[in-house]
Amino acid sequence: MSYKNLEIWKLAHELVVEIHAMTLADLPKFELFEEGAQIRRSSKSVKSTIVEGYGRKKYKQEFIKFLIYANASLEETIDHLDTLYATKSLSNKELFERLVTKATLLSKKLNAFIRTVTEHHNNNTTNINYPISNIQYLTSNINYRISNINYRTSNIQYPKSNI
After folding, report:
1. Has residue 156 been placed in a domain?
2. Burial classification of residue 106, based on how many CB atoms lie within 10 Å of its CB (0-12 exposed, 13-18 middle, 19 or more buried)
3. pLDDT digits (tens, 9 = 90+) for 100-124
4. Domain of 67: which CATH number?
5. How far apart are CA 68 and CA 63, in angstroms?
6. pTM
């Protein structure tokens, strides 16, 4: 499995492309190298950090750490969107709302993925299959339902850590 199969990576990729296009087409010229550059960097960081974490997927804590970094960059991206809209540099309300909605959905899916890795990762597994395609976001009460968890386990039993 490749990181490109992860639903969170696909959504992050879409967000990067849309934000990049927005900064070039919808912002005033003076924002191109100020807030525009910042939001391009933070949105690209979300996607890249997911990839870097996936590259360290064998090590549970490393994987989780990079997913948390990705979520932090996503929060930064949402803050840049808020700033651009509040300062009227981004005046297209529909575009603003669409980008914030997509970023918020990505944040929820990223948090669900972090929970899945936390609960089902096995440090002795090199071929990890995470159930991202099975994560269903329930919009009515903002609960997550994770079903059909498919992961490989080892016969080695490690003692629980008190950390």
Report:
1. no
2. buried
3. 999 999 999 999 999 999 998 875 5
4. 1.20.1440.60
5. 9
6. 0.74
